[in-house]
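Why show two proteins at once? Because comparison is the fastest way to build intuition. When a single record is shown, students tend to memorize it. When two are placed side by side, the eye starts asking what differs. So, the first record is below.
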Amino acid sequence: MRTDHSQHGVTMLDRTVFDKRPEVVPRARDFARSFLGGLSPALDEQAAASVELTVSELVTNSVRHARGDSCSLRLVAHRDTITVAVTDADPRPPRERTPDLAGGTGGFGWPMVRSLARAVQVSAGPQGKTVRADLPRG
């Protein structure tokens, strides 16, 4: 895991890179929790939980479905929003699928991210894609 901490005016930015293995998902949540803990003013409990859940879902989707060996997580705190961005080497966009109500194969994450976020954007290029979700700060 490599990490870069930066501050730009009133915007706080943190970025890290993970090898794509299932055990990185809890580390990504911890990374997000640590980032959120450094914000002032702090997010309310529900907003923080939404950011952590979004980080978990987007990193999980990259680990499970994307090509390549690593993914990066970027968190940016703006005045009214928190941006969660996950980048990987696979240019294919996330795919909506019918949730598996029997609990075997998932399918809940992408719709949940889209419902929690104010805006979701997928940017694809020859080097891969970035999935960005802007969540309300409180």
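Second record. Ask yourself what differs from the first in the token line.
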Amino acid sequence: MATAIEAPASTTAEGPTSHTLNQAARFTAPQLRLLHRGVDPKRIGQDDKGFSHMEAWDIKRYLLRVFGFAGYDTENRELSIVREIEIPQGGRSRWTVVYRAQVRLTVKDVHGNELGHWDGEAAGGATNLPSLADAHDMAMKTASSQALKRAATNLGDQFGLSLYNDGSPQPVVQFSAAHPPTEWEASKVPELNDPPVRGEPTLTADSATDIQGRRDDGVPTQTASAPQRSSQQLVLAEFQRKVHRGWNSLTAMEQSLAEARTKALLDEVVPVGADSVPTRLGDLLQTRIDQLKATAGDGSHGRSAA
């Protein structure tokens, strides 16, 4: 009786099947060498809260370097609005908008077979902008970029994993038993000397002007320079820490409200609570003062924190 012989899955008309796909998909030696390296410190910056971070465009650049053109895919699994806040100012309004996003990153081998995929989730916002369209655009891009970066950390140090170790550029992976050094140590890759990574241009409340340097209402204005914006962000961050320290003191809150008025911080929008709800700073302080006055009236003591 003749014995039937089944053709290998890779030679059938429909190509590789699901049970052979992962067996066929492999990293190349140069890819593994790049992935085992520590991140170049010149690729690390700081966000407006002082935390180490990497730019989304730089993450995309390294995805191209490691996996090649058309070597990775991104998919927005979710992109939805969390909050849209109108902030009336005189005869016009400013807008704060928050989105949440879930992005799936899929990487492929040089033959187009999937190596793996990961999902990243994030929220992103735009604060106090004069254009509603710009606020939505910026919030969507921020949420999507942050989600992509979080998904990419599953690929190790080159994609920001080590930054979760207190912002350190020192490699944390170093070795993988699935890919021992004998697979990749002998491979050669170019030693690139990239310039320091710079942040993408973004709109802020002080820089939301058109290309002629005019606000959306047509009134000429002077755009705040980057050092000025950075200085204001540092002032706000230090002020938020001060508010947090005095959160349960009526006197401290009243002093903070007066200080915010003096430093023109009342209209700054800050995230509040576990859901990071965008809230005008002046409203937050006044609400807390009212809460503490009510607490003092009934003799109880609040325990909440900013």
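One difference worth noting in the second protein: Strands lie at 45-46, 52-53, 72-89, 92-108, 114-129, 269-272, 277-280.
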